[in-house]
Automatic annotation (TrEMBL):
Bilayer-crossing regions: none
Domain BIG2: 31-109, 117-194
Name recorded for this polypeptide: Ig-like domain (Group 2)
Signal peptide: 1-30
One Pfam family this sequence matches: Big_2
Keyword Ion transport set for record: no
Assigned keywords, A-Z: Signal
The organism of origin for this protein: Eubacterium uniforme
GO molecular function, one term: ribulose-bisphosphate carboxylase activity
Entries under InterPro entries matching the protein: Big_2, Invasin/intimin_cell_adhesion, RuBisCO_lsu_fd_N
Amino acid sequence: MKINKKLVQVCGVCVATLIITCAMSIKAEAKVNDIKISAPSGRIVRVAKGKKVKLKTVVRKHKNKKVKFKSNNPKIAKVSANATVKGIKSGKTKITVSLKSNPKIKTTINVVVYKKAVNKIKLNRNKVSLKKGKRFLLKASIKPSKNVSKVLKYTSSDKSVATVSENGKIKACGTGSTIITVESTDGSNKQAKCMVSVNEPKVSIKKISVRSLNAFNVELSDKCALDYKDFIVTYKFLPNSKTVVSNEILGVNTNDNIHYEVVIKDLVKFNSYVKIEICKIKGLNNKEIYIDTHYNQSFFEDDSIDEYLTNMVGHSFYVDIRDYVNCFPLTYPIKINYSNLPKGIMVDDYNLKGRCESILNDHIVKVSVEDAKGRKVYINIHMLVGDKDTIVEKTFDFKTLAYKYDERNDGVNMNNTDDYSPSVIIAGGDRKLYYFDLKDYKAVGLPDNTQINSHGGITVVDKTKDVKPGVYNITVSALTPKDKKITMSYKLTLVEGITIKGRVTDPLGRAFSNIPVMFQIEHNIIEHNGYNKVTTDRNGNYEIRLFYDKYKYDVIIKNNKSANCPLEYLFYSTMNSFTKSQIYDIKVNFYKNN
């Protein structure tokens, strides 16, 4: 191959030239940054016609820091040797700043000259009183409003008391006083001042209310960080009584340092005066509430309940209605009315008693209750009465979680349900019968991957496979010990549920590993559904499935001595609603042991 040597030589020169040019360009650009220049108005010089402003220059990386200034258009703005810029007439230009020792090292700054100068600055407030941590926007207006620079400079005389942003946002930092000065930057030297006083917030108890059977909501007037040691809870039964009883505190929780949940060991007592005192705050530090509602053992929020009772014809029947009235939080005194009593049953004060004279298949006695505040609730007593030859049964529909395989921990942390056996009550026969006393169980309509066993239990077959959510109409047939056939039908609803997951940490963010977290259905003596328990992993993470429906949960972590905690519980929070899958991180108020 023939090569043109002259061409190669020319190309070589071009390449070398290109490399040298690029290197020089990079070096020059770097040296531009060796000089920093600014004006009172910032990166652009804003000066009024006939006024003067002083530039500030900073030279880095050079021993000789002397510079010289030059205006690109002296008819617009002039600049002196000592960095003073004077506006000559309205318009725009640039000022070049270069090193005297090396004029090639230089930079420029834009200049805007305004036709008019600021002659007055007016603030929306001349005095401001703030609580520590609060903010305030200081607004400034200037005159004239046109053909003038509107860039202002905000400064605080004591930044430990309050700081101010370039837009006038004041932040109260510490107690004391400071002066916020607002100055023009166009050379007119106009200013306005605002006196700022900062005080510690005077926090008071704004409101207290009953949250659950053993907890109160406490609302403060302002933010204040508190823990369990700052609260004192006492109660008494007479307004002027000197005998007061202290309540042990199980936990104090807050998300915003304003709204607190205070959990106590005792249940809220009817007809008592509860006083909550916070020693740490300086304002109104105690408040009393009268408990005029009888919560008994339940915080039941619905307005009706259904109770199912079984009996035999001719046998005595006795029911104390107060057992069911006590399910509702009511204000006494109350009025009770009864209707649809069957033959042989009468009312005696709070009691239903007598002898059932005939077979009853889900006969409903209706009881209505009205309390002193006008709240109406209803109790439906369902009576199932059989005899030696007649069996009456009731099978209940129910809803629960669909089984879901969890490879990580055998379903424990997924809170799986793997038993879908029916809930049945039976009246009649030659003796009292229960569902599991029967024999020869058969079932149709079961979900896939479930079966009915010889004891009547409907369970998951293969626990490595899911059970599909859905509605299943199931019919179970079985024989009594004397070979009488009973057919029981019910609707089983299986749901996916919701997934709650999060991390359990101490105030420093350190994880609590291998610690049980309980999601306990809030006190409800109507439905005994127990609790759901999950254990955190080594990083403090947990994950659990819940059956949300209408339930509210107490979230509880017992004290397992993994933290420096003198209480019975590391964490205790009541009446939590979970209606969708979510992250629920738990911050324990006590420090983890090393």
